């Protein structure tokens, strides 16, 4: 099949998408914008598309999720095409590596280990396998391999989980709550007496402990904050709608009125 035939074949699947990307990146006949891109310039789009997938899932919009998953898949194709051009890897080598990894990490499914394990035991086995993989990559420190480019809240959670595996953790949720009180007090004191950079440091300490509280409560801090954002958006938009009924905009209102409307919207929920 000619490449043009493949590109216009709706049933071409992954080979079609790979060929489309190769054509977009062709130095002579491709798209000027696509040709100029590199790993670093595409990385922000990759992160953005991953968040848009999460957003579609949060909203329960399956039609939108289908499109967002396609956008995310395109990012993988983009990176693997650039990797192939530079001789680093290919789409095939990437898929082979992840398939090999999944088989190796699930000996109870693809090997001869028993599937009769608790969720806790399976998690422990999974982490033991990952620890061996990190050792093979010369990652000796407990925190080695936790990506610096992760969103700060997610990275805080991963760092805390790694430290907890070797026993560096508060014994109980109560201890974490006590630490939050301590960090809150230090932030108040910093606000009154210290320069801005120290205030930021104390604020960061408080956020870090708040992430740890979520972990101790069995919650995902990122998901919890996403839901809080969605709730705030929903309620504030309801306030705007009620103000519109009064012939007003938020800038024409005041805090007392909007606060009262907030309580009303909250009660109506």
Automatic annotation (TrEMBL):
The keyword Hydrolase applies. Keywords: Hydrolase. Residues 37-110, 176-235 form the NTP pyrophosphohydrolase MazG-like domain. It catalyses: ATP + H2O = AMP + diphosphate + H(+). One of its GO terms (molecular function) is ATP diphosphatase activity. InterPro entries: MazG-like_dom (IPR004518), NTP-PPase_MazG-like_C (IPR048011), NTP-PPase_MazG-like_N (IPR048015), NTP_PyrPHydrolase_MazG (IPR011551). It is an enzyme of class 3 (hydrolase). The keyword Hydrolase applies. GO terms for biological process: dATP catabolic process; dGTP catabolic process; dTTP catabolic process; dUTP catabolic process; response to stress; TTP catabolic process; UTP catabolic process. Its EC number is 3.6.1.8. It comes from the Bacteria. PANTHER family: NUCLEOSIDE TRIPHOSPHATE PYROPHOSPHOHYDROLASE. Belongs to the nucleoside triphosphate pyrophosphohydrolase family. This is Nucleoside triphosphate pyrophosphohydrolase. It comes from Profundibacter amoris.
């Amino acid at each position: 099949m000619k490449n043009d035939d493949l590109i216009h074949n709706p049933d071409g699947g992954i080979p079609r998408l790979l060929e489309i990307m190769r054509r977009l990146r062709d130095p002579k006949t491709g798209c000027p914008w696509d040709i100029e891109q590199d790993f670093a310039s595409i990385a922000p789009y990759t992160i953005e598309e991953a968040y848009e997938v999460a957003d579609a899932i949060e909203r329960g919009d399956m039609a939108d999720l289908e499109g967002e998953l396609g956008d995310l898949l395109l990012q993988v194709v983009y990176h693997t095409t650039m990797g192939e051009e530079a001789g680093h890897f290919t789409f095939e080598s990437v898929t082979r590596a992840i398939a090999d990894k999944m088989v190796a990490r699930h000996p109870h499914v693809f090997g001869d280990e028993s599937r009769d394990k608790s969720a806790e035991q399976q998690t422990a086995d999974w982490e033991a396998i990952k620890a061996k993989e990190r050792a093979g990559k010369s990652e000796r420190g407990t925190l080695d391999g936790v990506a610096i480019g992760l969103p700060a809240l997610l990275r805080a959670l991963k760092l805390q989980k790694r430290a907890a595996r070797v026993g560096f953790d508060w014994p109980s949720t109560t201890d974490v709550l006590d630490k939050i009180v301590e960090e809150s007090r230090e932030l108040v004191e910093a606000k009154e007496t210290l320069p801005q950079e120290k205030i930021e440091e104390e604020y960061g300490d408080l956020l870090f402990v708040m992430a740890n509280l979520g972990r101790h409560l069995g919650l995902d801090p990122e998901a919890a904050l996403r839901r809080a954002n969605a709730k705030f958006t929903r309620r504030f938009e309801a306030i705007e709608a009620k103000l519109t009924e009064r012939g007003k905009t938020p800038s024409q209102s005041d805090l007392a009125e909007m606060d009262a409307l907030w309580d009303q919207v909250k009660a109506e929920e």
